[in-house]
């Protein structure tokens, strides 16, 4: 596998606005499972990774995703029918996206939903190779290649030209997480549907709060691969940490959201909005 990521960040962005005619974009919204939220390219994380993010005070970067399902196990929560695992609402935890001023694929700068950790100026990942760098990002698009599923790199090539996926041989250690081990490891189930009625309603309306996400994040942190069991003690501790966490991400997310409504998009503003808050730097492409 060999990819050319310079000036791309396609898999870290929701760039549907740059491909209004691409029938295959918004791919997460087709098939049996349809996300309740309207954000493309969620980077999902495992229960271990959720705990590491919480340890690092980065709970504000995590969000929950639930699904509607056609023709499959479901449960009605807060008036919304959502996909279920053994009667419990099923969900993923992934990395938050926030509008940032980015100029991918040589386009003019514009506001696009971008991963909390993407430096809009260099279009590089601020946590690349670090303690919290998620497996889903470090191996991308290896699992897609192993499953013979289209990669985001190929989508970028199709819509914006250029060569992104240079060698499409799947890495020898590609190990798509499917099957029973995924439950509790990457796919979670909330043990008490009654407790999340309001949260599910707000997720479906695009109005979920930090506390709503924290509730699911804490269940994910208290889960273990291969089981639906959730440790109460771990849940309580994780929920507190998810709610109390404060890092450069929180201030930056709030400022980006505010600026997106008023400012011209300028990727260099990341130096103040993220850099001055303590966001880790990126090497730039020259290095
Ligand atoms: S963590 Fe880094 S590589 Fe992963 S989606 Fe976010 S910016 Fe992209
Ligand atoms: S879409 Fe592919 S080429 Fe573009 S940044 Fe992601 S992995 Fe790299």
Tags for this entry?
single chain; 287 residues; seven-stranded antiparallel sheet; two-stranded antiparallel sheet; globular; binds iron/sulfur cluster
Largest sheet: 7 strands, antiparallel
**Rg, Å, rounded:** 18 Å
Query: What fraction of the residues are assigned to beta strands by DSSP?
Result: 15-25%
Residue stretches low in confidence (pLDDT < 50, at least 5 long) are: none
Helix/strand-derived class? alpha+beta
Head-to-tail CA distance between termini: 21 Å
Architecture overview:
It contains nine helices and 13 strands. It has 287 residues and is an alpha+beta fold. The mean pLDDT is 93. The strands form four sheets. Strands 2, 3, 4, 5, 6, 7 and 13 form a seven-stranded antiparallel beta sheet that branches. Helix 6 packs antiparallel against helix 7.
Q: What does the secondary structure layout of this molecule look like, with pairings?
A:
Layout: E1 2-3, E2 33-35, E3 44-45, H1 47-55, E4 62-69, E5 74-77, E6 80-85, E7 88-95, E8 97-102, E9 110-115, E10 118-119, E11 124-125, H2 135-138, H3 142-146, H4 152-160, E12 165-167, E13 188-189, H5 197-205, H6 210-221, H7 232-244, H8 248-260, H9 270-273
Antiparallel strand pairs: 1-12, 2-4, 3-7, 4-7, 5-6, 6-7, 7-13, 8-9, 10-11
The structure holds iron/sulfur cluster (2 copies).
Summarize the structure.
With 287 residues, this protein is of the alpha+beta class. Helix content is 27%, strand content 19%.
């Amino acid at each position: 596998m060999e990819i050319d990521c310079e000036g791309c960040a396609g898999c870290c962005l929701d760039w549907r606005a740059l491909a209004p005619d691409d029938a295959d974009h918004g791919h997460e919204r087709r098939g049996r499972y349809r996300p309740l939220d309207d954000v493309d390219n969620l980077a999902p994380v495992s229960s271990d990774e959720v705990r590491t993010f919480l340890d690092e005070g980065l709970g504000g970067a995590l969000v929950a995703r639930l699904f509607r399902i056609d023709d499959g196990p479901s449960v009605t929560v807060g008036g919304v029918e959502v996909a279920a695992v053994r009667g419990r609402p099923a969900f993923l935890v992934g990395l938050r996206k926030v509008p940032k001023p980015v100029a991918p694929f040589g386009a003019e700068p514009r506001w696009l939903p971008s991963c909390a950790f993407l430096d809009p100026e260099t279009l590089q990942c601020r946590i690349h190779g670090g303690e919290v760098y998620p497996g889903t990002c470090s191996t991308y698009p290896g699992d897609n290649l192993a499953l013979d599923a289209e990669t985001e790199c190929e989508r970028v090539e199709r819509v914006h030209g250029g060569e992104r996926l240079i060698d499409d041989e799947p890495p020898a250690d590609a190990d798509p997480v499917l099957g029973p081990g995924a439950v509790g490891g990457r796919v979670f189930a909330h043990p008490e549907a009654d407790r999340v009625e309001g949260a599910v309603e707000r997720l479906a309306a695009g109005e979920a709060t930090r506390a709503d996400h924290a509730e699911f994040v804490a269940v994910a942190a208290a889960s273990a691969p291969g089981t639906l069991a959730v440790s109460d003690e771990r849940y309580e501790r994780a929920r507190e940490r998810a709610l109390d966490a404060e890092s450069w991400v929180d201030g930056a997310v709030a400022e980006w959201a505010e600026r997106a409504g008023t400012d011209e998009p300028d990727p260099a503003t990341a130096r103040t909005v993220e850099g001055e808050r303590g966001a880790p730097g990126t090497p730039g492409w020259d290095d």
